[in-house]
Structures
1.
Amino acid sequence: MSQRETWATRAGFILAAVGSAVGLGNIWQFPFKTSAYGGATFLVVYLAAALGIGLPAMLAEFVIGRQSNLNAIGAFERLGHRNWKWVGVLGVGTGFWILSYYSVVGGWVLRYIGGSLTGAYFAGPASYFGSVSAGLDALVLHAVFMLLVVAIVAGGVEDGIERATKLMVPSIVVILGALAVWVFTLSGASPGYVYFLSPDLSQLSLSVSFDPFPSFSGPLTNVIPFAVSQAFFSLSLGMGAMITYASYVGEDQSLFGDSITVVVLNSAVGVLAGLVVIPLLFVQGVEPGSGGAGALFISLATAFAELPAGRLVGAVFFAVVLIAALSSAISLLEVVTSYVVDTYGARRPRVAAVLGGLIFLLGTPSAWDTAWLTWFDTLAYQLLLPLSVLGVLLFVGWVYGRPAVEELLSGSSLGQGVGATWLWLARTVVILAVLLTLWLGVQTLFLDGAVVPPV
Ligand code: PHE
């Protein structure tokens, strides 16, 4: 095998990891899932999950990736545990699944850049969303988005990905921050802040009964699977992405420090997007929960239609969202591409193109009808993501064990105690929390009948 590429700089890796993490998950999914599933309650569970489960799980993925120096599937084999390859396969499969509809939403974003410039949505933001979010329009833009992703991945790690992500995070923070300030000045926004930021403690409850299987009830049953999986989704966990990215990292770098940076920045961007979108929904009189997948697009389009220089602001905003979406989508495609390139020694550009084509095909139903998109998304949240993260934690916690601590500590000045605590937590509390998430997800999936595809 030829010499593996590595990141040019330490900042390169952090930026790419942040670039992978910050994406439509934060800007599109987070506000709409928050407004659909309980507002501040969702926020509390999400933040707790990001720190309490996401951080340890991210460290687990970093360790697997750096130690093995290989792609997300090959890694398990190289670490001497062939039987655990299924975890990698599940992760890569989950990434494949998610990218198929992620790309459809990326296509919407492309459309909204144009729609802002021409003012096409100014007259009727809601009906505009309805007409461009499904059907032939959406399909064509889904194809264009996927082509862009393929082009960047084909270029290789340093040239393509590293360069594309450097400017993105600062621009996102600046634009979202400015919008948040503007929203704050609007009348009618305040109930939005209450809904988003002040949790009703009575909603944070969950009860369990055993007859004979555990069955849960209470307000949190619905919130947990979505909020915890939202943390996984937005941190790019359970899809082999962080394994793959960490495989390009040197032994002299502190994985611990890097992962904290990623978690904090990522959650901050999500909350910032929430501070823009949720109060806006209230200003516009949209009932929380009824915004759906169009919440971001409709609420912001309505806002841009009212703003002075709205066309320009809108176009710039959606352009930045596009960059965020691209840098995330790149890392999803990179996972599969790197597996095929490592394993079969095939040429990177060709592999990226073929895989991109397959993912495009898988996404066609979602582009055609948003009911399919919702179905793909629900299955990812309630089943695939928690299952896949569970696999990673079981592997690192119970199978790989001690060597993982050594790998974690390499390149950092942390003491053994921190490493041992991490491993112990990953083995116990964190795994239990993921099990609960999975159980609740599957429970609601079957109770609602949401497993049945919308044919
Ligand atoms: N974390 C990305 C987002 O929030 C999505 C993603 C998941 C990207 C997994 C890569 C890998 O949009």
2.
Amino acid sequence: MRRFFVAGNWKMNLLARSAVELAGALARAVPAAFPNVQVAVCPPFPYLPAVAGAVSGSGVELGAQNAWHEMPGAYTGEVAVEMLLDVGCRWVILGHSERRLILGEADELISRKTRAAVAAGLEVILCVGETLSQRQAGQTEQVLDFQMQGSLAGIDYRAIGRIVIAYEPVWAIGTGVTATTEQAQSAHSHLRKWLATRYNPRIAAETRILYGGSVKPQNARSLLEQPDVDGALVGGASLKIDDFLPIIRAAEGIRKS
Ligand code: PGA
């Protein structure tokens, strides 16, 4: 049985005070780990220590939105995985489409980061997903295969246990256009088959695959009920406690056989 995982990707939002307020409200709502759903928030780098303090002792885990794969040294403007662990991160988001498309990160770099993060003891939320033109050209599965192949290069069957996949169709991110439940289930099922072929059926059955892209309280339940959807990576709706909590509660209320 895969436990649900709902993670908030705050992106480049909030300031110190609002970050701590939001984290504090979430920690009060999730005072201890929920049995059926794991919960994490991923604030911007400067607020990681303050948010770590605000969620300390609660059921809310901490993640970062990016990392650099080299050991600490001369990499101006970058943050090492050791530093993330040092400030209390358990998770790091890697390969988000905003980093792929705006910052030009390619699968080769993402795989280096993934290997470094896992080797250091972090857990990774690895994002993949097609653009609108790729979907319209019928290339969705091909794009997902390519990204999985590239981003998971050098990740063996032991390391994959520390990785959660997030399927995030680019056309659904921040647009208000959510994938239909059929589109999400179809992509997730494809990713699970890929994991079975690349690794083995047990790993495919155990690896969690989150959906991301305009997840809201209104659509969370129907998405999370899909057999291969194991949680959500939530952007915009994770910035308001009144939007984020119902998504967590929707996951908490679903039992899959
Ligand atoms: P969104 O972002 O929920 O605002 O669409 C999701 C994400 O980019 O992780």
